[in-house]
């Protein structure tokens, strides 16, 4: 099949749109899990209402936003690779595919947690789910950098310093949020 060069740009645009939708869904889904788990400290009648509502919101988000975003991103990526098969033999793409595999495992793991919550099985604390929610952020940073820098992936000391600063800022925000939560519980 012969595609025009413009088709590649269409594939790329919708690949990026799919990725944005996919990540929005993944981030919000685990947020909902956190609220769902933390409402278990409430009285039975409150818990019952919230469990029903969170289960509904999680299912809708996962099936109407998160998974369709993932499917769109993957189908468009297949189109990109079909038009540019030489990328498959390049190191940056192979590493990218490895990280995308981790992301897919994360995606299906979220479904597993969602089904456990639906069945009132609470295997994780809110704190553990907050930590889990950091994983896609890391995958996002690495994958976007791989696709932008390709084989010139930055490895200099200055680049590591910038990367370290970003991690430090993210950790500080998390600690600040935790400190505020603890303070709220004490008052
Ligand atoms: C199914 C797995 C995936 C494959 C096979 C794939 C493949 C590709 C290909 C071939 C391109 C075009 C590169 C170019 O023309 O320069 C691309 C672009 C891009 N991909 Fe993916 N991708 C996948 C998943 C992802 C994921 C999960 C993310 C985000 C975390 C992502 C983010 C991007 C971005 C931001 C671009 C645009 C880069 C640019 O134009 O500079 N991709 N992808």
Automatic annotation (TrEMBL):
<dbReference type="Pfam" id="PF03653">
    <property type="entry name" value="UPF0093"/>
</dbReference>
<comment type="subunit">
    <text>Homodimer.</text>
</comment>
<keyword id="KW-1003">Cell membrane</keyword>
<dbReference type="GO" id="GO:0005886">
    <property type="term" value="C:plasma membrane"/>
</dbReference>
<feature type="transmembrane region" description="Helical">
    <location>
        <begin position="61"/>
        <end position="83"/>
    </location>
</feature>
<feature type="binding site" description="axial binding residue">
    <location>
        <position position="15"/>
    </location>
    <ligand>
        <name>heme</name>
    </ligand>
</feature>
<keyword id="KW-0408">Iron</keyword>
<keyword id="KW-0472">Membrane</keyword>
<comment type="similarity">
    <text>Belongs to the HemJ family.</text>
</comment>
<feature type="transmembrane region" description="Helical">
    <location>
        <begin position="95"/>
        <end position="114"/>
    </location>
</feature>
<keyword id="KW-0349">Heme</keyword>
<dbReference type="GO" id="GO:0046872">
    <property type="term" value="F:metal ion binding"/>
</dbReference>
<dbReference type="GO" id="GO:0006782">
    <property type="term" value="P:protoporphyrinogen IX biosynthetic process"/>
</dbReference>
<feature type="transmembrane region" description="Helical">
    <location>
        <begin position="14"/>
        <end position="34"/>
    </location>
</feature>
<keyword id="KW-0479">Metal-binding</keyword>
<comment type="pathway">
    <text>Porphyrin-containing compound metabolism; protoporphyrin-IX biosynthesis; protoporphyrin-IX from protoporphyrinogen-IX: step 1/1.</text>
</comment>
<dbReference type="GO" id="GO:0070818">
    <property type="term" value="F:protoporphyrinogen oxidase activity"/>
</dbReference>
<keyword id="KW-0560">Oxidoreductase</keyword>
<feature type="transmembrane region" description="Helical">
    <location>
        <begin position="135"/>
        <end position="153"/>
    </location>
</feature>
<comment type="function">
    <text>Catalyzes the oxidation of protoporphyrinogen IX to protoporphyrin IX.</text>
</comment>
<feature type="binding site" description="axial binding residue">
    <location>
        <position position="96"/>
    </location>
    <ligand>
        <name>heme</name>
    </ligand>
</feature>
<keyword id="KW-1133">Transmembrane helix</keyword>
<dbReference type="InterPro" id="IPR005265">
    <property type="entry name" value="HemJ-like"/>
</dbReference>
<feature type="transmembrane region" description="Helical">
    <location>
        <begin position="159"/>
        <end position="177"/>
    </location>
</feature>
<keyword id="KW-0812">Transmembrane</keyword>
<protein>
    <recommendedName>
        <fullName>Protoporphyrinogen IX oxidase</fullName>
        <ecNumber>1.3.99.-</ecNumber>
    </recommendedName>
</protein>
